[in-house]
Amino acid sequence: MKTGHPGRGAVLFAAFLAAAIIGGCTVLPPETPPASPTVTRTPTTTLTPTVTLTPTPEPLVPTPLPSATATVAPTTTIAARAEAVRDPVTTPSTTALPLMTPTQRPTSTSEPATAAAPTPPPSAAALPWSPAPARARDRLGVGVPLGQITDYDWGDGLPGWYLNWRTELNPQRPAGIRFAQMVHIFEDEYLPPLARIQAIAADNPGSLWLIGNEPDVAWQDNTTPEQYAETYGILYPAIKQADPTAQVAIGGVSQPTPLRLDYLDRVLAAYQNQYGNPMPVDIWNVHAFILREEADSWGVGIPPGMDATQGTLYEIPDHTDMAIFQKQLVDFRRWMAAHGFRDKPLVVSEYGVLMPDTYGFPPDVVSQFMLDTFDFMLTARDPEIGYALDDNRLVQAFCWYSTADTRYPTPNLFDPETRAVTPLGEVFQAYAAGIA
Fold first, then answer.
1. Which of 8, 57, 77, 383 is the most buried (most CB within 10 A)?
2. Which residues of 120-144 are buried (b: 16+ CB within 10 A; e: fewer)?
């Protein structure tokens, strides 16, 4: 049983941080994309009915976002879209999202718990950090890998929350926006030390705590299911002891594919075996990238401790496929329900477009994907697997990657050097302002 973060771990973790890039650090395909799929994509203006209403080797440094003359979605369209999802708590949609046929995956060795019957929803004001925000904008978040949230001019489009992949004793909170704390895990170590974590928790009551960042990815937290379960069992009670109102979330796996769900099955089984009781999770958390799962290839690779050599073999054009994006989140909510977690909120704490323009992802495709995903996560509901305390919505909060990044600049809302808003950032701000 670990009680802190020893010196050996500090050295290893420092080396890890020097090699990794904060956020959704995934290896992109070689500079010459595979010839089999076409990389030319035609963005759609609406979600396809069969998905919306049926379910339904060196890292490449991409090119920067094109100049302000690039084509993006017009603000009139954004205003109309924002109007459609404005204040969804008080004016809920009556359209439910039916169940989709689940993706077949290996059977877990752990026995899923029986889902508890939902309780009547309280008022939004009585709920904790993220389950049912009073405003639609409170659901919309951003990742800030460079600088501070206040380094950027958000105008009327300030998001409702943010994270920066760190823990902060005094996080900047302009206009009272929320900040998500993150503890990093590396194999069987964690940072910051436990005493620091508890001090931050005590001084920031009611915070959301993300325990790890992509533990399933070798160049991120690189943690086996068994290692993750052991560390989580140390951090969860320590944070709760310091702040009983804290909302503790499991670390987000890179994408909710069958292979990653099997990883989470092993986490739950390992926790049960090690601690003798079910794993306590206040808020479920997942990333929602669409990337290849194959050993020695581009994408997110194979999770540590897993014997597979292949998972879901996505191709480059799949990276912004809305049908895949929606199905992954529906499948994850179904997995939550099957394991007795339907009564928990779901946060998508990181997703975006990492591929460069030259791979078929120009600004108009990226902005269309961003708007379509915003619409979906603000409105998608399911009466069987959705979160009952939030009008059966599938997702309670989500976070776009990112505000500004030099390694993966395609989804940048601001220029990393000048801090000037990008065309995509203008689209984001118009949408956020419209759902205030």
1. 77
2. ebeebeebebbbbbebbbbbbbbbb
